[in-house]
Design brief:
Order of helices and strands: EEHH
Number of helices: 2
Number of domains: 1
Oligomer: single chain
Radius of gyration: 18 Å
Low-confidence stretches: none
Helix content: 55-70%
Shape: elongated
Length: 73
Amino acid sequence: MTLGSTYAISFNVLQSGGNSIAANIANRFAEANDTGRGALIASGLVLFAITLVVNITARAIIYRRREFTESAA
């Protein structure tokens, strides 16, 4: 998922011209007004939540895989 300069979200990651959410936060934070700063902080929280869900899922998969291989031996 990338963000372009037109505030439109595009799911075409392989096309040029877009920024990641983290790059968008870094590039626009200094020039943002109060509303824009709040939106950037909210997008950072969404990015954090997505990262947290991915990491919890990965740990659950690794734990189940380890449990499966130990019981099979």
